[in-house]
Amino acid sequence: MMTVAQTVAEPTRRDFLFIATGAVGAVGVASAIWPFISQMAPDAATIAAGAPVEMDLGPIAEGQIVKIFWRGKLIFVRHRTKKEVEEAQNVVLADLRDPQPDSARVKEGHSQWLVVYGNCTHLGCVPLGNEGAFNGWFCPCHGSVFDTSGRIRQGPAPTNLPVPPYAFLSDSKIQIG
Fold this sequence. Notes:
By secondary structure, the chain is an alpha+beta fold. It folds into two domains: 4-38; 46-176, Rieske Iron-sulfur Protein, CATH 2.102.10. It contains three helices and ten strands. The longest helix is centred in the first third of the chain and has 26 residues, at 13-38. It starts with 12 loop residues before the first helix and ends with a strand.
C-alpha cells in the first residue's frame, strides 16, 4: 500500500499545455508592451539636435587629436603635451589677434585637454592638426594658422577656434553639451 508521501506526480499533458500557454502569453505581452517602452527613447533627430555626448579620454595618447561630432559640428579633442601647454601659457597676449589666455580655453586642473570646434573661423574649412608654424592647426584652404590652444596666429581667420560647452565628469571622461 502506498502512502501519500510516496506518491510522485507524473507530469501530464495538461501540465505541458499550462506551461506552453503561459510562455506564449508572456511573449505576447512582452511584444505588445515593447513599442510603448521603445517610444519613450529620444529619436535620432533629437539626439542630433543637441543631446550631450560623453567621451572617454583614456585611450587618447599624449599629442593626439581626436575628432567627434556634436550637433552635426566637428569637435577636436586634443591631449596636449607638457611642452604644448607651457608654450600656450607663455604666449604674450598682445601678440594675438584675438587675445585670450590659455586658461580661459581649458578647464582648471585639466590644462592638458583642449576641446574646440573643428572648423576654421574664416570660411569653415577643416584645419589639419599638428601642422603650421605653431604646431597647432593649419587651414589649407586660405592659410590660417592656429596654435596649440586654438588661437589664431596667422592668416585670414578673424577669431580663435571656439570652445564648445563641455564639462569633466571624471578625470578621464568629458561630456560635450
